[in-house]
Specification:
Length: about 500
């Protein structure tokens, strides 16, 4: 069944899902194609389209390493078809809504009030990934009474090249257009499109939760900290994003990015932005992949893409290190829910202590968040040894559960896994609706109570075979981590 919605840019036609109360729209453009002289420019508004836009299929993904990415394990877990189209013209979003009924000639919003909106930002180390990954199906979340949107954005060298000449170009235009962090600007443009258009799909533009995983969670943190986003969204969920640790501990400077871009231009044999913008996308990506890490970085053993093409403090979108912004209480006024898996990013400290670096980073974020005068967040620890191999509760493994997409995974899940997933979908959508994850389960009984985090008391929600609050589970790790960081909460 087809259903048609009128947006500010023209009519768009979607498909009823196998559950006909859910309508899915795939491949709606939210910004003009960032190609040609728009490469390495902030996204521009999309032009109205002629006729009715057929939003039946996912749009191309941003060019990225192929096939499937850079990690065989994660490729098996949730990699997309390696034949997926890759194109710089990648700024599209997808919508799952439970609010529409009827057919293409008579589509109407039947919800008796505007529904909460959840905007998803995918992960992939800022280098890979796309909205078409099978675990990102928004149907289970939409079934709980929210409108779900997933947003594509520019990645790697297309989204995170930084160059002083881009700043000079912006200054010569005498405008306030940001000149770096284009992937973040794309995400922001997608959220702004949602604010302007989501009411036509039954969503509430004044009740938006942004959520993401891994680099998507880090992107959520960047959106929270950006001064350009005042009032743009109300809540945020960060899954397996390492908080203020790992890749969020320190953002490179614009000058650092400039030096990397200059090395790339030299490798390409170009000397100007105009020349670099004329390099075919495949050739540009190949050169970006082949570029070594900066000689002074000390990171020769790391994947060079994750060293070279990452966010920077540009002075407009990101104005300072996240930790300082949050400690001063200058981040946007939002409620947050965050967490990590129990086997995520294990590292050995200087004294030989094995620390869960992802968890340590989240505890640091929580400490700074409270120190900056904001409400304590809701914190979870996902404790599920994933069936089918010995990988345990690995990085981002909660994705299958928070989206309710276990049935599309190769792993042999059993009954309690599905029970946990149902509860997590309920927690996530309750939080999106009210800022509080608590509420009824699908059968009407109350979910296990989830209380806010309390420093040195623990108060983590254990999401596992038994879903319950746990306290004092890791106070030694917490204290050592915060002392190591110099956090005030450790005093």
């Amino acid at each position: 069944m087809l259903r048609t919605v009128q947006t500010a840019l023209g009519p768009v036609e979607g498909l009823a899902a196998p559950e006909p109360e859910i309508t899915v729209f795939r491949g709606i453009p939210f910004a003009a194609p960032p190609v040609g002289d728009r490469r390495w420019r902030a996204p521009r508004p999309v032009e109205p389209w002629p006729g009715t836009l057929a939003a039946y299929d996912f749009a191309p993904a941003c060019p990225q390493p192929t096939p499937g990415g850079s990690n065989e394990f994660y490729d098996r877990e949730w990699g997309t078809d390696p034949a997926i189209e890759l194109n710089e013209d990648c700024l599209y979003l997808n919508i799952w809504t439970p609010a529409l009924r009827g057919n293409r000639r008579d589509t109407r919003v039947v919800a008796d009030h505007p529904l909460p909106v959840m905007v998803w930002i995918h992960g992939g180390a800022y280098q890979t990934g796309c909205t078409a990954e099978k675990e990102f199906d928004g149907s289970a979340l939409a079934r709980r009474g929210v409108v779900v949107v997933s947003v594509g954005y520019r990645l790697n060298v297309f989204g995170f090249l930084a160059h002083n000449r881009l700043r000079e170009e912006a200054e010569a235009r005498h405008d306030d257009e940001p000149y770096a962090n284009f992937g973040f600007l794309d995400q922001r443009a997608g959220i702004r499109w949602v604010v302007k258009n989501i009411a036509a799909f039954g969503g509430d533009p004044e009740n938006i939760t942004i959520f993401g995983q891994s680099a998507g969670a880090s992107s959520v943190l960047a959106q929270i900290c950006s001064p350009l986003n005042r009032g743009l969204f109300q809540r945020a969920i960060m899954q397996s994003g390492a908080g203020l640790g790992m890749f969020n501990r320190h953002q490179q400077s614009l000058e650092d990015g400039h030096r990397t871009a200059e090395r790339l231009f030299e490798a390409l044999g170009v000397s100007s932005l105009d020349e670099a913008r004329q390099v075919p996308a495949a050739e540009l990506l190949a050169a970006a992949e082949a570029l070594p890490v900066p000689p002074e970085s000390g990171r020769e053993g790391d994947w060079s893409m994750m060293v070279n093409w990452v966010p920077c403090v540009d002075g407009r979108f990101i104005t300072d290190q996240y930790a300082r912004t949050i400690a001063r209480g200058e981040q946007n006024e939002v409620e947050i829910l965050l967490g990590n898996t129990t086997g995520e990013f294990m590292e050995t400290d200087a004294d030989g202590t094995l620390l869960p670096a992802g968890e340590v980073g989240n505890l640091k974020l929580i400490a700074e968040w409270i120190r900056g005068g904001r409400k304590a967040p809701y914190y979870y620890r996902f404790d599920v040894a994933m069936p089918g191999d010995d990988a345990g509760a690995f990085h981002s493994s909660e994705l299958w559960f928070s989206f309710g997409t276990l049935a599309t995974c190769w792993r042999p899940f059993v009954g309690w896994h599905y029970d946990l997933s149902r509860r997590m979908v309920a927690y996530w959508t309750n939080f999106a609706a009210t800022g509080d994850p608590n509420g009824p389960d699908a059968d009407g009984t109350p979910l296990p109570e989830w209380t806010r985090y309390a420093p040195f008391g623990g108060d983590a929600m254990r999401l596992g075979q038994r879903t319950r609050m746990i306290r004092d589970w890791n106070t030694n790790v917490e204290r050592n981590a915060l002392l190591q960081w110099g956090g005030a909460a450790a005093d």
